[in-house]
């Protein structure tokens, strides 16, 4: 770092994104992208909208906001569209937490939560998962801190039922509960129906996974109009034109073509179960997943070694170094053909270990 870097950030450990290598062509199963392209409607709308790039985007994201509201059965003033769901998560940390009121989250979960807390000088409480990698929500009842829960959790893929999360929200009426639903379309229950009942609930989602737009950077949050008003204060104090013109129109057309994307999610679920069954046949322990990835380990080879050997063979998965999960790899679900390549390469690696 330079001698000019602020001391308040000197101990900050930044988030490490998944590899985006350019040295060769990989079967890319490491960053939970959709294997399916955007709909034709998105392509056509983006091409046409490109002619207007000399104009600023709509700071209110009016069309996209209304379409999201219609899709999820809420009012437009209960929705905020952001530059990826990471942005609305950061806005929420900024709006509802400070040096006096911290935030609580699991020890094994989305790695950006701790980064946001440290970036914003927020005290945070880490609550361990149970031995089976599930979240015990009773550990979160009546906390002094706000709460963020990824549901399904990442990188495990395990989901909690909505009625259990409702108990959590109800037990913390004076704390904001953020439910990060990045992977909800792959088999979990959304908590959006609860936002009318609880003014302390914020649900965040993304277009990066089920809607095939990881490169478009579109996220959104749904909550009470008062929570959204608070978040808009942060937005208009930092980056009012936060969602670019092409992403706004792409998101709008994606909502129009919702059936296409939800059918793709069903395909991914089917491929996920096929892959899980075949990994188990190879002796893997595979956690139950409601996301577009699997979390798996083998007693025949450690997680890092499997990751490295797959990479040498042109298949990328995600490995994490935390001791509690170092034996596991997170495997994004691609097409059936991509998963067959993965399974073939794993089988060859394991046979070579004998």
Tell me what the CATH architecture of the largest domain is: 3-Layer(aba) Sandwich
Q: What's the β-strand tally?
A: 13
> What's the overall average pLDDT, rounded?
96
N- to C-terminal distance: 46 Å
Count of runs of 4 or more consecutive helical residues: 10
Descriptive tags:
354 residues, alpha/beta, Aspartate Aminotransferase, domain 1, Aspartate Aminotransferase, domain 2, 2 domains, seven-stranded mixed sheet, four-stranded antiparallel sheet, 10 helices, 13 strands, 15% strand
Which helices and strands, and how do they pair?
Layout: E1 27-28, H1 40-49, H2 62-72, E2 79-82, H3 84-96, E3 103-106, H4 112-119, E4 124-127, E5 146-150, H5 162-171, E6 177-180, E7 201-206, E8 219-223, H6 225-238, H7 245-256, H8 258-281, E9 284-286, E10 293-298, H9 303-312, E11 315-316, E12 318-319, E13 328-332, H10 336-353
Parallel strand pairs: 1-11, 3-4, 3-5, 5-6, 6-7
Antiparallel strand pairs: 2-8, 7-8, 9-10, 10-13, 12-13
Helix pairs in contact: 1-7, 2-7, 3-4, 3-6, 8-10
